[in-house]
Amino acid sequence: MSSAWQVKARARVEDGLERILPSAGRFPQPLHRxxxxxxxxxxxxxxxLLCLAAAQAVAGKWQERALRPAMALELIHAYSxxxxxxxxxxxxxxxxxxxxxxxxxxEAMAILAGDGLQCLAFxxxxxxxxxxxxxxLVRELSQAAGTPAGMVAGQAADIWAEGRRMxxxxxxxxxxxxLPAARPLLESIHRCKTxxxxxxxxxxxxxxxxxxxxxxxxxxxxxxxxxxxxxxxxDLLDRQASTGQLGKTAGKxxxxxxxxxxxxxGEPAAHQQAARLSRQALRRLDGWGKAALPLRxxxxxxxxxxx
Length: 307
Description:
The chain is mainly α. The protein has one domain (4-303): Orthogonal Bundle (Farnesyl Diphosphate Synthase). The protein has helices at residues 4-20, 29-39, 46-59, 67-84, 101-105, 107-126, 131-145, 151-161, 182-208, 213-240, 243-246, 252-255, 261-265, 267-284, 293-303, and strands at residues 94-95, 98-99. The protein has a two-stranded antiparallel ribbon. A hairpin with a 2-residue loop joins strand 1 and strand 2 (98-99). Helix 3 (46-59) runs antiparallel to helix 4 (67-84) and helix 14 runs antiparallel to helix 15 (293-303). The longest helix is centred in the last third of the chain and has 28 residues, at 213-240. The radius of gyration is 19 Å and the shape is globular.
């Protein structure tokens, strides 16, 4: 169950997104309707909540100015989901329990809607003040969303690895040196594809609240832990949960031959690794005080999620 803080923060994000997105009636209407479909169709709003919670943990109180970076994170996430669902990518017809953007508006408009959301994210960050903060936030988000160590790089590696026969870790001296070992590649994909944006959410919240180098380093480590744990859980839920529970098509990872934690390590070991990373993230928050309680609650809820 969401805490009162999460309910309040999520409402502020929803109101903010509604305000900054172009209205459905503004020309060109099909594009703006598709953008709103992708950005306002529900979801956990986890990335903006992490950003807002990190800012409060650093500053000791609610940080209204962290709302802009929080919204920018969600816009990037929404764009990535629209593109991820396209036939050329994961080819999914269901997202958050609703028809995906390309199913409703067509592939061309879905591609353009994703492009529009990405541009709006950086326009939103450009409004942050002072200018040095805006610059730092743009750098952090662009690196987390792009390449060589961000979301786009992870997506590309995920597609490249799909259906390939990887070397098991113990056979690195086999006569197939052109194929990477499965385990290091798997972790790299997960840390880029999912983890980079979750890590950036914490760092951007810290930057907005004026965190020093030590605090920012702590936030990066916490973000790295929860980012990898989150994607391991995603892999497990794809196998164990139903389409109704997930709000998207279940079982697609196995059907598409994707490289996943339970596929490489087995389900028990994957559960153990996700739990270990979540515990480690919580330990890193020891000593942060009451202001970090919303962040602790978010980490705990991520560890217990069922969708």
